[in-house]
Amino acid sequence: MRYQLPIGGSVTLSCSVEGSGNWTILWYRAASFGSKEEPMTEYEGKKAIIVSQRGLYSCRGRIPITAILTIQPNWTRIYTSEAFTVRCEIPGGEGTYWSYDWRPERFTTYYTTNERTFYNVGWEDNGNYQCRGNIGLSLTEWSNVIPVTISFKLQPVLTVSPSWLSPGASVTLSCEIEYPSEGWSFYWYKAIPYLDIKEEAYKYELLPDGSETAQTLYVITGQTHTAAYVCRAQRGSNYYYTYYSKPKFVWSADLYPAASLTVGPVGQTLSFDFVRLTCKGNSTWWRVRKFPENSVPYCSNVWNLGESVCTLYTKASYSDDGVYWCESRSKQFSNAVNITLQADFYSGPLMEIPDDPVKKGTFVRLRCNLRRKKIFPSVAFYHNNKLIQNDSREELNFLAVSKSDEGSYKCQYSGKESPSRWMSVKSAVGPESSSFPVTARMKVMNAVAFILRFSDDTAIVGRVSEGNKLEYSGVIKDFVSRCEQNHLRINASKMKELVIDFSKKPSPITPTIIQSGGMAERDRGKLNKLVRRASSVLDYPLKSIEQVGEERMLSKLTSIMDNTYHPLCETV
């Protein structure tokens, strides 16, 4: 019906529904054709109203029935990628063709079915859900409110008991998850070392009968070696899976011939005490691992060929305390070792003596490096185990050193003794006592292997008895490690190993392999080509690989020459 309203005039509108005396009248107004109707809540329940504003007016009757909203599955929490269904019921409305309005309002209204299913839900599906019935111009009351909050994808927590194996004991895995009784089934896996640790440390293999178990527990019997496990959960008709749990370990301290971790004695540097962990066994590739992972040493992320060695320092910017074990690419785990590094641990001072033989009659200064702030007043020096100085000085000076001063020296501080060091004294003039042009010699505590430093080269001499290369290999590893620590590159392409066999029955000696850090000529050419292309793109000259290498080498040599405590200062 159309009514022309005079200026300043008003009109009375009436609304009635036959046989519905207890219905509630609802009024709506739209500003023009095609615009959205807005409810006139101030007139709710009135059968007649007076209006003076132009527009399109309508009324509806609200049935005194409240819709009922249910949700399935009725879980306490819904996670991203899951699915749920809401259903709207009209009490007493059976046999009537209803349409349905839904909240939140972003959903399309006037659905003719009373169910809505949401698949692969995400953040946009959060909200307070309601519904009501709609038939012609009549509406039911809005239903009850069901709040739906979508949570992050779930990650269960795995616990193992016991953490350390004992003979005959079984291992119990427990997969903990929020609301475990709400339709979850569980999967159980064994963690296997993965090739590329930078992407993922482990891959997972399903345990026997470890699929879709209803229980949150899984018991393993007969486990004798270190192992890692994970779990995850699944529920729902669309097979929603949680994330995998973080790996949990059960450790064994028993040595295992196929895979073993050994802890070396405490060593010393000018600043720190350290201990080396070594992996050995039947595999050719090893890595050292640590728990907890809050601070992982650099060596824990590296696969090593042959023996894998990890060095731990007693003073560092991160904590190295934890349980350590070895893993191989052939799926083996070694024994585990629980290590605590005391921040105040002190193994003793270091005796600093020139590596080169000193000239007779010259001034020589020996120093006791305390490697910590001085607290106690006295420092003792010994020559051939005889006390020769005991006072506050940390130095032992010879105004004119003589041949009688040659020998073994050590110092003592805070009840700790340094390792003994040998000082050689040579004549001021005349030929060297050695037939080789030796400029420096490293004193080794045994005669099985030692290092000779020549004016332009270095030789490592060792005796191998009954195939035992441990001492000889150890000296080589120490030499290589020292070069790496001082940023010196070994030219492995020019190295030679000479074996002289004095045994009656020749025995095969496996060659010693040292990996070279050099760069192949082909690779160098490719990198320089890439540099030239970058220079062209940037329109800016860039240095070649050779120039960068020379500048860095010069900078390193300069820093060595300026540092009198550097072991190569006098050599350079």
Looking at this protein, list some descriptive labels.
single chain, five-stranded antiparallel β-sheet, mainly beta, 36% strand, 572 residues, Immunoglobulin-like, seven-stranded mixed β-sheet
Structure in words:
With 572 residues, this protein is mainly beta. It folds into 7 domains: 11-63, no CATH class; 67-151, Immunoglobulins (Immunoglobulin-like, Sandwich); 157-250, Immunoglobulin-like; 259-339, Immunoglobulin-like; 348-427, Sandwich (Immunoglobulin-like); 434-503, no CATH class; 521-562, no CATH class. It has 3 helices and 43 strands. Strands 2, 3, 5, 9, 11, 12 and 13 form a 7-stranded mixed β-sheet that branches. Strands 17, 18, 20, 21 and 22 form a 5-stranded antiparallel β-sheet that branches. Strands 34, 35, 37, 38 and 39 form a 5-stranded antiparallel β-sheet that branches. Strand 20 (227-235) and strand 21 (240-241) form a beta hairpin.
Short recap of the structure:
The chain is built from three helices and 43 strands. With 572 residues, the chain is mainly β.
Topology (SSEs and partners):
Elements: E1 11-14, E2 24-30, E3 38-39, E4 48-51, E5 56-66, E6 68-72, E7 78-79, E8 84-89, E9 99-103, E10 115-118, E11 127-135, E12 138-141, E13 146-148, E14 150-151, E15 157-161, E16 171-176, E17 185-193, E18 202-206, E19 217-220, E20 227-235, E21 240-241, E22 248-250, E23 259-263, E24 267-268, E25 273-281, E26 285-291, E27 304-305, E28 308-313, E29 322-328, E30 337-339, E31 350-352, E32 358-359, E33 364-369, E34 379-383, E35 386-391, E36 395-398, E37 407-413, E38 416-417, E39 421-423, E40 425-426, E41 438-442, E42 449-454, E43 458-462, H1 470-485, H2 521-538, H3 545-562
